[in-house]
Every structure is written in structure tokens, then in C-alpha cells.
Design goal:
Helix content: 25-40%
Bound molecules: S-adenosylmethionine
CATH class: Alpha Beta
Number of strands: 7
Oligomer: single chain
Shape: globular
Largest sheet: 7 strands, mixed
CATH superfamily: Vaccinia Virus protein VP39
Number of domains: 1
Order of helices and strands: HHEHEHEEHHEHEE
Number of helices: 7
Radius of gyration: 16 Å
Structural class: alpha/beta
Strand content: 15-25%
Amino acid sequence: MSQPDSANRYRQLAGGYDASAQRTMALRRSTIVRLALQPGDVVLDVGCGTGLSFPLLLDAVGASGLVIGVESSPEMLALALARERTELAGWPNVILIESSMENAVLPRTVDAALFNYTHDVLRSPAALANIFRQTENSAQVAAAGIKHPPRWLDPLRLYRRFKSRSCYINSEGLDTPWDLLTGFVPDLRIESTLFGSGFIAWGQYRHDVPE
Ligand SMILES: C[S@@+](CC[C@H](N)C(=O)[O-])C[C@H]1O[C@@H](n2cnc3c(N)ncnc32)[C@H](O)[C@@H]1O
């Protein structure tokens, strides 16, 4: 995957992103519930996009918690900043960082990490290594995204490929997009969504996993 490619892609998608993401809001909520956030937690929103998850994350971590959003596309991040200034005006506890996840330096270690529809990050060993270097042991991790439906649903497979082709650069790993995560989250549980064309994965990060 190339970062400039992804940034170019999201330069074009940013304007219409929130409208297109409305159909997966229920999935977003279910994924965030799997983080089992507590008041005071620090949560990382990986590839936070326009910040659609921020209100839900802030509700869960409360005024004593912190939401850190990292996003590589300046256009997506600009919309997240706008959301922070308007909708979230009463919440000082959001930190936004413009960076690739491969290079992001977080202001502190995190208690939870959300990967909501971030296929390119899930398929980047360098991004995962960088994220988990800055994550507390036993942190709760939740990911949701697209996957190939089973073979017997081939028409749906084609439809899925058509619908989501613009949202990721790396089309590798769509059978089991979560598999690199299992190196960090050994108890990763997977639930199929959207008739097998999506998934939610969640579990606890363990830094003491034997190689
Ligand atoms: C489909 S959007 C999802 C946005 C957000 N997570 C959400 O739930 O609405 C994928 C986002 O990941 C960002 N992204 C892709 N690769 C990235 C990387 N290596 N580091 C940081 N952000 C990345 C893209 O710029 C885009 O905003």
C-alpha cells in the first residue's frame, strides 16, 4: 500500500464520506460497544476519517477520558476538525493528529484502539507494530470492515468489490482482513456481518504473546 495513493483517494472521497457512511452507523455502534470503554479511558481512533466515531467514543470515556484520532488524509482530518469545533465544542478531550499510522507518535499510551473500516491499516505490519508499541497491555481492541463473502455468494462478492473498491488501496487480505491483528490480539473473536461481506473482530492486546 502506498500512503500517497491513499491520501489521493481520500482527497476525492472526503466530501461525500459522511453521507456514504450512514448505512454502517449501526455497525459502528456495535463495534465501539466491543471496546467496553470505561470513564477515564484513553482510546485511539485509528484512521479516524471525519470523526464520525468521536461522539460515541466521548460518551463512553466521559470528561475524564481522552480520544486520540490519527488520520493521514488532510481533507478527512479537516472535516474531523470541523466536527470537533462545532458538534463537539463542549469536549476539550479530543486530540487530532495528521499522520500515517505507520509514523504516528501518540501523546500517551492508549487503553483501547478502534479500527473502524481501516483495511489499509489492518494490512500494514508497520502500522500495527507502531500502534501496539504505544498501547497498554490488555487494552481492548475492536475492528470492523469489509471482507470477501464466502465463495458460494459469488454475486455478492462482485457487488462488494464494486461498492467498496474506492475505500482501500490494498486489495490483499480480503478473505481474512483481521489475520495480522491476531499476532497482537491472540484471543481475537470474529463475527460475520452484512451477509458475510463484513466483519467485527475484537479482543485484548497482549504484548507477552510468545512468538
Ligand atoms: C473508510 S475510511 C474510515 C474512516 C473512519 N475510521 C470511520 O470509521 O469513519 C478509512 C480512513 O483510513 C485512513 N487511512 C488509510 N490508511 C491510513 C494510514 N496508513 N494511516 C492513517 N490513516 C489511514 C484514510 O485516509 C481514511 O480516512
